[in-house]
Amino acid sequence: xxxxxxxxxxxxxxxxxxxxxxxxxxxxxxxxxxxxxxxxxxxxxxxxxxxxxxxxxxxxxxxxxxxxxxxxxxxxxxxxxxxxxxxxxxxxxxxxxxxxxxxxxxxxxxxxxxxxxxxxxxxxxxxxxxxxxxxxxxxxxxxxxxxxxxxxxxxxxxxxxxxxxxxxxxxxxxxxxxxxxxxxxxxxxxxxxxxxxxxxxxxxxxxxxxxxxxxxxxxxxxxxxxxxxxxxxxxxxxxxxxxxxxxxxxxxxxxxxxxxxxxxxxxxxxxxxxxxxxxxxxxxxxxxxxxxxxxxxxxxxxxxxxxxxxxxxxxxxxxxxxxxxxxxxxxxxxxxxxxxxxxxxxxxxxxxxxxxxxxxxxxxxxxxxxxxxxxxx
Length: 377
Fold this sequence. Notes:
Elements: H1 2-28, H2 37-52, H3 57-79, H4 85-104, E1 106-109, E2 112-115, E3 120-121, H5 133-167, H6 172-205, H7 209-232, H8 235-246, H9 248-252, H10 257-283, E4 285-286, H11 294-306, H12 311-335, H13 340-361
Antiparallel strand pairs: 1-2, 3-4
Helix pairs in contact: 1-6, 1-7, 1-10, 1-11, 1-12, 2-3, 2-4, 2-10, 3-10, 5-6, 5-7, 7-10, 8-10, 11-12, 12-13
């Protein structure tokens, strides 16, 4: 059971990172990117190929994120002068192009070259070997500190509702609704954080290979979330929101809109590249078919579900997505007598139905703000 919880924690953290990059591009800047998987693909393959060449794992992951950002630079110069649906069409083509190139290109694996279709296996993974007891206690301490920061941040986030209600002259009804929403989300995330913490402590002491990877994934997610929150609240982030609403206004104020869009695309791509490294480390072997366009649309589901333009909402969307995936994977076979392929299609159909209901009931997502809604602009 603990091993499965560790697997879910790594998956959720990885795709929360992946979705945070998309949320920066779409939720804050209004860029329609249907080829987000291209950044994850480059990040994953760059990381594993460099580690097989003897480059340290941490440096390989950093280089992978830089390569993903450079792809954003190339895509940006080619596509950012397009708008809305044209941009979406081009980006989904780029995502498939990267996957097909990897599939058909020979790759330098160690000292030999192999066909990309055969995939890459047997590459180094962080903390694959059991560390000594002292280092395991260090990892436990980091996980404990992360739990404390998470609980404190959630408490501040919930209490900020009351502060904003007095400073922004919100109605009592609106204030109560937002407070109840934040309280519910905070309690759920806090409870999940405690469950993950207990699982982490147990699996770190009785060490399993993925326990250390989970700690690193959660630390990186926390760091990226913290920095993104600072950025989107800064003048730079306010310019991105202005571009999302009407890019002619920041243009009239002398802002270089193209440059801001390019920065958003590159930074979102770099974050997705880091997510690609964790995706590859969790899989322990990467194949081109691991990077299907479906993963991009999974990230869109997470962003829309939680609320675009809201980083906590994006993390919540990832949590809900993987909770739904785990629950239905275990329970549906016992309820509905269908084969595995049809059950998979049924699960996708149900989550599509949930999204349609959400779009009718709350189009801005669970934590999104209706006044910042960019769907249907």
